[in-house]
Structures are given as structure tokens and as C-alpha cells.
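Progress narrative, work stream C.
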Amino acid sequence: MDVEFLGGAREVGRSAVLVDGSLLLDYGLLTADPPQYPIRDPEPDAVVVSHGHLDHVGAVPALLKGDRRPAVHWTPPTADLARVLARDTLKLHGNSPLCPFSEEHVARLGEVEVRHGYGESFPVAGGVDGGGSDAGGTGYEVTLFNAGHVPGSAHVLVDDGDTRLLYTGDFHTDDQRLVSGTRARPDADVVICESTYADVTHEERAAVETRWADRVRTTIWEGGTVVAPAFAIGRTQELMLVADANDLTPYVDGMGKEVTRLVRRHPEFLRDPEALRRAKGAARFVTGRDGQRERIAADNALVITTSGMLAGGPVHSYLPEIRTNPTNAVTLTGYQVEGTPGRELQEHGRLELNGRVRPVSARVDSFDFSAHADREGLESFLDDYRDSRVLVNHGDRCVAFAEDLRADRFKASAPELGERIEL
């Protein structure tokens, strides 16, 4: 078995790992201006997608161009989320070279997809020499395990009969309100491990929730409005649950509305489906008609809205309305990738709006609602793989984390972008 890193190596975004030139694990894009895609366009026999976030699934429809029809394997929530994300990408970039697929390619997903639950092993065609299943390969047995990141997120175990490869995808070892943390530790010879928060120790989640709820209450009591930019998938629903648990009534805007309805169709992938039902019932979904957003911005309210990194979406309707008043607040609740408007606001207190960079006088606070394992979580997960080879990816400090693991007697390295490794 060999693996080639087409994206996500020593970076966060556009994850794509090609096994034996035949089996593709994830095929995402990196949110930037312009968006960045994996470094080359592979032609796999099959694809297994770990979860429904843009940086892992965002480019999958592009694999269905021409007469190419690789099977696409994923969980039911990931299948549904992939379509939501693809159509949003088409809405943003569909008429430009920035989008490598069309609505036709999205529709083709229905021809090739296969949905799987956790713990269900399934065969996947493939070739050990990179030539595909017609080139003498024996194929793989693949199993998905709950990764505790977002609904439907999975660790991917690939077994070719000689080598067992565990691709962690994104994962969290602690429980969130929306999903339970990963408990899965399947036997593996090689682990490709994410490292997004390898240099971070998360604050206790209960304390984060309390601080966020206090900030919202205080701001509203003082006469301000709170805008909480949030990823549509996972973070919007998590904040709705936290708000409901703290007797806060949010407005919810953007793609998170559709995602909330979607994930509720898959209660078996949620930690507490009834809690999410209550939170949805208590929230007020925004239609965006007739100046509604401008009125809400002046309404001393909590607004949970996309996009989480301020790269687009309804958040750009609210921020111009609240930015000049220091009584208002922006609560950043997710990782802000370098080069995004969210990182610019977080580090420099300014934001580009309507083509002009403007200062933001509203209070800006960051809250660690991460759905990724932190340093302690990564180490506790990898502790079961001390006899395995560890390949560190999906992080800003992959090389440093691999060095730390080697110092702790792991067989660890951090592959470079484009590197192909024999296992």
C-alpha cells in the first residue's frame, strides 16, 4: 500500500489522500480567495468521504466529469451535507473558472453514492499498483467509525489484507452537545492523523459555554446586539443547543437553517435528538425578506449566522449594521483560517466591507467551541497506536507535532504536499 497527499498536508484545507492511486480519501477545497483545490485531478476507482465539511468533501462532484463514475462511500448525513455544500459553491462560483463542477455533476452523485452506518464493513474496488481494479488489485475492506466531530463524521479504516490504514479525518475525543466524542480505536498499522489543534489545550467546554452565554446576556442587557458567526454544519446547531440550555432565544440565519433541518432527519447520528428539536423550536429562523436583517441588527438580539469565517453569507448583512457601536459584540466561535476575513477581524479588528477595509468598534471575542481534539485529546487517541506508524496531516504545525511524537517514541512524520509514501 502507498499513499499520496494531494491536499491537507502541512495545511488546513483541501484534504485529499490517494491510496494506491486507486482509492481516494476525501476531496475537499480550501476556503480562500480564490478557493484552492487538491494539487492534481485524480481518477480513482472509489472515494470514501470522512465527513461533510467543505475542506473534506467540497470538490467531490468534480470527480464525476466526463465518463468517470467512481463509487462514493459516506454516511447518510455526509451524503446530504455534501449536496448542500456543493450547491452553495455553485451559487457563489458556478459561473466562473473557480468552480470545477456543475449542477450536472452534483446530480450524478445519486448514480454513484453508497451510504453506510458506523461499524459496517464494506468492500471497495481498487488496485495495489495504481491501475485500478482491472490491474490486478484485490480491493479493500473499509469500515467507518464515529469520529465525534459533526453528525456523520467518520474515521476511515482501510484494510487491503496486508496493511490496515486508519485515516482519522477530523475528530474530537470529548462529548459535545450535538454529538458524542469518539470512542473508536480500531487496530491499525498506519494512522493518518489530523492535527488542527496540536498546539492548543481547549478550555473546559462547560466554562466556554458559560462565558459565551454571559457575554451574550451582558451585551443584550446593555442594549447591544450579538452576532455569532458560525459554521453551518455542526457549530450552528451546537450554539443553538447552548443558547437553549441557557434560556437564550437566538435568531438563526444562513445555511445553518437548512443544515439543522437536515441533520434532524438522522437522529441516530445525534447525541440528543430531542434537545435539538427543542432548540430548533425555540429559535427564530430568519427569512431575510423586506429588510428583516437590518431590523434584527437593531433589535438587541443574538444572531447565529453563517459564515463562520466571515467569508460570505448573511453575516455581511449584520456586520455593517453593528460594527460602529462598541456596545455590540461579535463572538467568533470557530477556527479562523489564515487569510480569511475572520482571521483579519480576530487579529486586527478590521474587516473589508463593500470593497473597503473598515475598523470594527464592536467588541470582538473568541470562544473555543472547537469540534477538534486538542493536544491532550490527540495524544490520548494516539496512545493506542504506539506500535503503529503515524503520518501527521491537517494542521499548521504538522512538522512540530510529528517531532514531538518522535520524542515520545512514536514512529511519526509529517508528509509534504504531493509526497507519496510507501507503507
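Work stream C, second folded protein:
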Amino acid sequence: MFDENWRTAAHSYALALHPQSLTLLDEVGLASELIPQGRKITQVALYDGERREHVVKLDRAGGRYPFVLVLPQSAFETALEERLEARKVKVHWNHRVHEIRPAADSVTLLLARLQKETRGYPIAHTEWVVGKEYPLQCSFVIGADGYNSFTRRSLDLGYADLGGRLLLSVFEFETPAELPDEVRVVLNPENTNVLWPMADGRCRWSFQLAADHADALTLRRLHSLLETRAPWFKPLPDELHWSSVVQFEHRLAERFGKGRVWLAGDAAHLTDPVGAQSMNAGLIEAHTLARSLFEVARDGASDDILDDYGIDRSREWKRLLGLGATLPASESATPWVNERRHRILASLPATGGELDGLLGQLGLKLAG
């Protein structure tokens, strides 16, 4: 396993693990370790300004984990690395893949080991530079290397921009407010805003901005956004823990891989972060790929199961991104839900059959 970064995430980016993801993590004994570190979310509340319109219950489907777990990305990545080390799997940090050479029965990687080098005179600064390059031959490659995936580009796969960019100002802070175990999604006519409660008295607010908007990210700016978009949120915070401006796009790779090189996660798809669908789908994809590769490499199964993986995941993401799919509203759906149904689709923390169940509570059905 190779990663260009030099360590796990340092910032406490909020992370929402869906019930299906927790079930997968339970297979390696990680769910019980992570749950005490996070905050259980049992429902999604949909707002229009100050008005609470609908509540979607996450526990209707049952299962062992009838909730979404919110915890820092750093805690999740550290737990994953420790579990890999316990199984004698080493993460090679500071390694960049420079070339991928697929063959009929193997793949050769050209790897670069990065190292710090101090440069500059009279003011010194440190840069990461290539210390050594060397080849590595392997049976298969899984590229889970994110939005700017080198693996995807090496396969010369298109990554279509489907429109619908979402620019967000994100603020994390401590609050004395006793927030319920629910994520609140404020679907105003012109913007989407999200409140995630976290453990230890913290919370995370994300506010949609106009395209190419430069935001101040100050405490005063946070107060202004809360007063205009969520006036019910009290009291206003006295201090910021962390803030940033981030942009998300709707994208989908033309296929999920070929031959002995395959994609998972953001390397293959992107959507709004509100429902944390892309990251959780990536965990499902990694799990499915691992099982499929084991069957091919160890049990002699046909490579067709890898092609089936690509077809299945492309079909699912076309549904999630509204490509060739419809989202009709039944008679039980309110006019408010019907008007915002496509925004609601990306706001629910689920994929696959779990998402169908949540949509059904609102009188919606994802078809196609």
C-alpha cells in the first residue's frame, strides 16, 4: 500500500460513516473501536429557513447499526493504519506512483520515494523531492487516489464534469447547545446549509456560497451566516476551532477500470458532501474489489467478475447523479419535497438499498 502523503490526516475533517460502512468495518473488528470515539446520528431533519419540514429516520431499516457515526477523519485513518499494522500490512508513506504499466498477467509500477530537502539562501525552506525511483511488479492495482487520480489518468479514462458545483464555507466550533442526534439540512430556495453535531460538544456547519465567492472565514462571518440562514441556532459561538472553503463537483469516470487496474472512491466519482455518499460508496467499492480480486487470484475465478464490478458501480452512480434515472414523487410527497427532491437525494446519508428506504419515507423513489 502506497500513499503520497507523509502521514494520516492532521485536521479533524468531519466524517460520517453510513450503517452499511459500519457493517463492513465490523468484519475487521473496527466498528466497536470507532463508535465510542464518535457521535451517533439517528435522523435527518430537513429545514427551510426556520421551518422544520420533515424528519427522516435512519433506524427504520433496522440492522446492527441503525445510525450514522460522525467522527474526525484523523481518528478513522489512524484506526485503519493500526489495524493494517496489526496484520503485518505496511503503509508506505511518502511514495508517489510515476508510471503504471499494465500487462496481460501483471502490472508494473514505477514508484518514487519522496524525502524532505532544505533549500534556499539566505532564507531556508523545506520541500518534498524525489529521493529514489524503483519498479514494483504486482498482480493487480486498485487506485483509490482521489479526485486528481493518477491511476485514472494513466488509464486515459474520462472524468466528466456533470455540472452542479458546490462551494462551501465550513466552520467547526464548540457549542453549549444540547444538539439532538440528528443532522440538520437547511434547503433554502437559493442555498444548502448543513449542521453536523459531533462528539465532545463540537459541531460542524457548512454553508453554500455563490460560485467563485471569496469568504472571510471569520467568527463575524459565521455569526452573519447563522443569523440569516439558521436563526434558530443559539447561542452564537465565541470561538472558532477550524474553518475552510471547499469546492465539490459532480463527476463520474467513464468506467471503473480495465484489465488489472481498477478504481474506487473519489478516483471514480464525486458528488455533494452533504450525505457523505462518495466516501462511503468508496468503502463498499474497496470491499467488493478486494473480494473479487481474491477470487480471481486465489480461486481462479474468471476476470469477468471485475468487469461486473465496473458495470454495477457505474450503474449505481448514474442513479445517484441523475443520469438516466428519474426521481418521481408519489401522492404522499409534499410539494416542498417534490420541489427539492434532487437536492434531497444528495443530502441523505445512504447509498443503494438503504437510500431507497430513506427516500421512501418522503414519498420519493429512485428509478432507472
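The mean pLDDT is 89. No further action is required on this item.
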